[in-house]
Design brief:
Shape of chain C: globular
Order of helices and strands of chain B: EEEEEEHEHEHEHEEHEHEHEHEHHHEEEE
Strand content of chain C: 25-35%
Chains: A alpha/beta (about 300), B alpha/beta (about 425), C alpha/beta (about 170)
Distance between the termini of chain B: 7 Å
Helix content of chain C: 25-40%
Largest sheet of chain B: 9 strands, mixed
Helix content of chain B: 25-40%
Radius of gyration of chain B: 21 Å
Largest interface: A-C, 23 and 21 residues
Oligomer: heterotrimer
CATH superfamily of the largest domain in chain B: Metal-dependent hydrolases
Largest sheet of chain C: 5 strands, parallel
Radius of gyration of chain C: 15 Å
CATH architecture of chain C: 3-Layer(aba) Sandwich
Number of helices of chain C: 4
Chain lengths: ~300, ~425, ~170
């Protein structure tokens, strides 16, 4: 297994399959939550420069269910807040003896810099607008629970792709596994260079829905209206929001997914969020399993393995 | 007193005199005394230039010396050392210091510090606007008439965004036959950028600066130069589109000149994939087609000269996330080598672009050649074939932010003679007599 | 051991289990994934033939309980099915008993899941070289081996035939 997970492309399809299969075999359904001693001697640090209860808790639980010790360097109240540089913080953490650092940061590339300065495994929990590899893994896992293969699967990713690290990781992960990806959204929020990503792009959501196997909604933030990317959130919602009428256009077995947290009423209506085809809660559960699998495989592999898988 | 020197057996490349031949050069009392084949040494210190090129010293139109204010990154003294080692006998100290060089007092201070260092001519650049704030003109006349005799004005790092103000600057500077150089970056398109806007920024999720942000301002400034008859200089050209604009302007006889940095002649936005802030610079590294257009433009003279935009930053300030790092790269000590190694420019054209043209743009007496009897002896001897590896810790600059660390380059300055004094001997700063 | 030997050994073990536990009440068979599970199922079938009772059977994945995590490449995990074990007599079943470390891991996994009344161990082959104080209650056959040798167990369900072979390490 790779030493660091900074971009989803650090993994090849075999590596991804390995993580998904391992995740599938953890925490079998219908039993009590199992706690495994596998990472008993390991310490995992959560270094979260952006506050995020959801992802941080997910990593924390994943590490704890493998019996690892977890330390949270949260933004407020720590030396991080007092202006200590990322490099200084990294060296402080390493001086304390740590096996893995999970980092979320608002600057693209921060995890890559961190990996230059520390010996520990570095896991990117979201860097700026760049990547969110574990989100892509849990999204693949969720899809695989419902579809036997990714090959040719039609996935529509809807919304603010330009500012979305989730979109970048998911596009790469899905195309790597053979899926057919279409990006849907206002032209101001789809990078024109996406044409070179091996995906289709369109502003017409209604044309895409009837054939989609998965509709993946991205969070639409208020700041985008304020910065002039869209005239208003209301208009965005009317043209690109998934409401019940649009959900009815979907195939019977199509899934609706969202990385959370949702802006109910903007990109997704409250009713659609609660449909049986909505995988949003499953994504959260799967997040813990996938992160457990990743930690187990990364920290359970001796020395440094340069190759994937 | 300066010694008597004889530079023997070198290929004298002197475009200002249309000369390219193996000749000896004799220097006495700070001036070229004689130039010809097989000169007798007659008690002079002989510098063996066999196999090397003898040229007028390079002139840099764009240097950041950081003093006053950021002496932790560079001082006028350390920057002068870096310049001399790079073969520069004249450099231009940009005005974005702290305090800003927008008054006679500050530019005279820079001027004096340059003279005290005594390793090259340090020509202060004056700010166009007071405090670089882009609101009102700085006291251009005062600075022009000061001991520093400022004839080159720039708000570099900042762009003069107000067209009316830029027009006034071009008009007003005419009274002093001064050049106005505007850092071209349309602020409204430049929100939070850290690299070029394009394929790589889309992939890396980084906010980008589109080429158009530069081209819009260059187009505007060219039209204002035409309107006012002022002397416009375009600093650090970085896009093919800007090259086209300059070419068209020159074809119409508009008095515009332009420079390009060594790093823009060789590096592209792909370097940023490493997220190493050493590659963060303004204007940003662009695409391969841009690099090719810049090389062609430098070769055909659309771009008049090479200017380093030497921009030192302390190690701590660059040892951060890409977004948080300041823009800028070192350039003085690697300029010659990058141009020789990474472009197809022949030696004579290179000397023209790095010495003759910039001296002419700034109307500097005693720089840029011709190497003729009575001329000030500002000369260099360099070996175009010698190779060396760039080792950041071995650079004379106080900072280490060179994007060429570890590269093996061709072309090494062996001797720099400034006003007839040896300041660099055999590739090292000389502690010779002052 | 050939197919016949394997069959007779399993039959004998089944009898021994019933004899020692005075019947099939409170018994649960749990096989270490993956051959142990197959052998456990065969034992359950034999017990059903002899006593007419269906003993609950399951499997256990020890991958996350190994003591060599981080020392070698993690083997693939499989999903296990551990039936209720509180107050039961759990018979752990594996194909080969060697250093005893796998059984130690299985014991830890069982203890995490519940509190059995007792745990016994049944193995098809004991090849010696114990590194922990673990012993089997029921053994199909003792086959002393050298460290450089390998015991290869084949079962019809996955390998096409039943057999136990001794091979040099590295041979398939």
């Amino acid at each position: 297994m790779i030493k660091h997970l900074l971009d989803i492309t650090d993994l090849n399809p075999d590596g991804i399959q390995r993580i998904l299969e391992t995740a599938a075999n953890l925490q079998p359904e219908g039993g009590a939550i199992r706690k495994y001693p596998a990472l008993r001697n390991k310490t995992v640090v959560n270094l979260f420069y952006e506050s995020s209860t959801r992802t941080r808790t997910s990593f924390e639980l994943a590490a704890k269910r493998l019996s690892a010790d977890v330390v949270n360097f949260a933004v407020s109240g720590s030396s991080v807040d007092k202006g200590e540089s990322l490099k200084d913080t990294a060296q402080t953490i390493m001086a304390m003896g740590v096996d893995a650092i999970v980092i979320r940061h608002k600057a693209s590339g921060a995890p890559h810099r961190l990996a230059q300065w520390v010996d520990a495994h570095v896991i990117n929990a979201g860097d700026g607008m760049h990547q969110h590899p574990t989100q892509a893994l849990l999204d693949l896992f969720t899809i695989r629970q419902h579809f036997p293969s990714f090959e040719g699967l039609r996935v529509a990713i809807v919304g603010d792709v330009t500012h979305s690290r989730v979109a970048r990781s998911d596009v790469q992960a899905l195309t790597m596994m053979g899926a057919d990806v279409t990006l849907v959204g206002p032209p101001t929020l789809l990078p024109p260079q996406a044409e070179h990503w091996g995906v289709a792009t369109t502003a017409d959501l209604d044309a895409v829905l009837p054939k989609a196997d998965v509709v993946y909604l991205l969070r639409m933030q208020l700041e985008r209206q304020q910065a002039g990317f869209v005239p208003s959130l209301r208009e965005y919602s009317r043209l690109w929001g998934l409401d019940s009428a649009r959900a009815a256009m979907l195939k019977d077995d199509a899934l609706v997914m969202h990385p959370g947290p949702m802006n109910r009423g903007v990109e997704i209506s409250a009713e659609v969020a609660e449909l049986p085809r909505s995988m949003i809660i499953d994504q959260v559960t799967n997040g813990i399993k996938v992160r457990m699998a990743l930690l187990y495989l990364m920290l359970g592999t001796p020395g440094e393995v340069a190759a994937n898988g | 007193m300066a010694e008597t020197l004889l530079i023997a057996g070198g290929r004298v490349v002197d475009p200002a005199a249309a000369r390219d031949a193996v000749l000896d050069v004799r220097i006495e009392r700070g001036r070229v005394a004689e130039i010809g084949p097989g000169l007798a040494p007659g008690g002079a210190r002989v510098i063996d230039a066999a196999g090397c090129v003898v040229a007028p010293g390079f002139v840099d139109l764009h240097t950041h010396l950081r003093e006053p204010g950021r002496e932790d990154a560079e001082t006028i003294e350390s920057g002068s050392r870096a310049a001399a080692l790079g073969g520069f006998t004249a450099i231009s100290a940009m005005a974005n210091t702290d305090p800003v060089a927008d008054s006679a007092g500050i530019v005279e201070q820079v001027w004096n510090l340059g003279r005290a260092a005594g390793l090259c001519d340090v020509h202060p650049v004056g700010a166009i606007t007071a405090g670089l704030r882009g609101e009102s003109l700085a006291e251009i006349g005062e600075m022009a008439n000061s001991a520093a005799k400022v004839t080159f004005f720039s708000d570099d790092g900042r762009c003069v965004g107000d067209a009316a103000l830029m027009r006034r600057a071009l008009e007003y500077a005419r009274a002093f036959d001064a050049v106005v150089a505007n850092h071209a970056e349309e602020a409204a398109l430049a929100d939070g950028w850290s690299m070029n806007e394009g394929d790589v920024s889309a992939l890396l999720g980084m906010r980008g600066l589109p080429a158009e942000a530069e081209e819009i301002i260059v187009a505007r400034d060219i039209m204002l130069a035409r309107l006012t008859g002022g002397r416009l200089h375009v600093p650090h050209v970085s896009t093919a589109g800007t090259v086209d604009l300059i070419r068209a302007a020159k074809a119409r006889g508009i008095p515009v000149t332009a420079e390009v940095t060594p790093h823009h002649l060789t590096l592209t936005e792909d370097a940023v994939r490493s997220f190493d802030p050493v590659y963060k610079v303004a204007p940003p590294l662009r695409t391969k087609p841009d690099v090719e257009a810049l090389r062609d433009a430098l070769a055909d003279g659309t771009i008049d000269c090479v200017a380093t935009d030497h921009a030192p930053h302390t190690r701590e300030s660059k040892d951060v996330e890409f977004d948080a790092a300041p823009c800028g790269m070192l350039g003085l000590e690697t300029a010659l080598s990058i141009v020789l190694t990474d472009t197809a420019l022949d030696v004579s054209t290179m000397v023209e672009r790095m010495s003759v043209a910039p001296a002419r743009i700034r109307r500097l007496a005693g720089q840029g050649g011709p190497i003729a009897e009575g001329a000030a002896a500002n000369l260099i001897v360099f070996d175009p074939a010698a190779t060396w590896t760039v080792e950041p810790n071995a650079l004379a600059s106080k900072s280490r932010n060179t994007p060429f660390a570890g590269r093996e380059l061709k072309g090494k300055v062996l001797w720099t003679i400034y006003r007839g004094r040896v300041v660099v001997a055999e590739g090292r700063i000389s502690n010779g007599e002052r | 051991m050939d197919a016949g030997d394997v069959s007779r050994a399993l039959a004998r073990i089944a009898h021994e289990i019933l004899e020692r536990n005075k019947g099939a009440e409170h018994l649960v068979l749990v096989g270490l994934l993956s051959r142990g599970e197959i052998i456990a199922q065969r034992l359950a079938e034999r017990i059903a033939e002899i006593e007419g009772v269906k003993v609950p059977t399951g499997s256990i994945e020890i991958g996350l309980y190994r003591d060599d995590i981080g020392l070698r490449h993690p083997p693939a995990l499989k999903t296990d099915h551990i039936p209720p074990i509180d107050d039961k007599v759990v018979v752990l079943v594996d194909d080969v008993l060697y250093t005893g470390r796998s059984v130690r891991a299985a014991l830890d996994a069982l203890m995490d899941v519940g509190r059995p009344k007792a745990v016994q161990l049944a193995v098809l082959v004991d090849r010696g070289h114990r590194e922990l104080p673990i012993r089997a209650d029921y053994v199909g056959k003792n086959i002393p081996t050298a460290h450089g040798e390998q015991i290869v167990v084949r079962v019809v369900e996955t390998d096409g035939d039943d057999a136990v072979l001794v091979a040099e390490r590295g041979e398939s």
